[in-house]
Amino acid sequence: MRKNKINAGFTMIEIAISSAILSVIFGGMTLFGIQLVKNNNRSQAIKNTVENVGYAIEFINKAARTSNTIKGENDKLFVIDNYAGASYCFYFEGNKLKRKVGGSGASNCASISTTPSVIAGSDKVKVNGTFSIKETDRNSNQRGFIRTSVIISHESESIDDFDEDRMIIQSSVSLRDYGFNSNI
Fold this sequence. Notes:
8 strands
């Protein structure tokens, strides 16, 4: 006589336990992947902002070096760039660094009527700062001087985010007006 061989298989309890273990493993991997993507997006946003601020500071420095007029008014910087034949107004507003461009006939930031463009900053990455300005004074033979300080910070999405994404970028430049008669 032949014995009927019983095919061994998985019971319902074994399948349920293995499914639960796999769900926990895949859930953890998914959460890790989501956090990895968030961190990558934050790092990329900060990197882009740092590059934009670096560009803006270099642009400000070049415009100041080739100008004959530097003025400051309420944390705004006004520069008439002799080389480019244009005037620029740089200022911080709404956690962004903005720039307005006008003609060489402008006399201050208010006289430039163009729409401002955002140079650096976004809803997630805040950009604030100051311009320490020593204005050009041709009557006393003093050249202009600018110290730019830009603070970049990241707006965290989570209360549990303990990383402090904040940095300060500073630069200083003085006017290099070759037609300037200095007695120094």
